[in-house]
Amino acid sequence: MKLTGTPSSGWRQAAKVLVLYLVLILLFTGLGILFAPSSAQVGSTRPEDTIPEHLLALTGFGLLLGIGGMLIYGRKGLPLVVLTPVLTVGLDLDHLPAYLGYSQTIRPAHSLVFFAAALVLTAIMIKAPDMELVVASAFMGHMAVDTGLFAPFSPISFQYFPLGPYRLAFAGGALLCALGAGAILRLEGRNSGGRGRTEG
Predict the structure, then answer these.
(1) What is the pTM of this model?
(2) Considering the domain boundaries, does residue 196 fall inside one?
């Protein structure tokens, strides 16, 4: 994979990744509503008193992942610190129909199909390896915090499985990808003669 001479983790690219990610979440949410059998339209909202705690856990873990990437790269990795927790929390946008009172599938964008689509589209449209790793880190970070059921092959299949057995693997993958994003940025800075590197 060819690295560019200028570090790819900038605010403009972070904004593009965010828009792409959120649009893709809404697309998968719509596909779930359109194609899932009625028996699978059993998604529901969390009890209201547990939502703040859950959002705090997602934000906190996403922030730790972003900080991990920045520690490898330096202060110019600040977009990693901002983008990673926003994407980590943003995956829950696929609960929107349930909050609006409509029947939907359980976590339609919490799927490996979504994950693959997000990585492929980020690679094609953003062309920044560090951003691909941020997307991977945020997705896996979210899955590591979540509990309950998910459909790993939504919207192709809506068979539900418990998340519990996979959470530790998701957490490890999220951390490795976050550190990898920082490492790629640091290498890009070195390849560009140090222009992208900062200390600290």
Answers:
(1) 0.90
(2) no
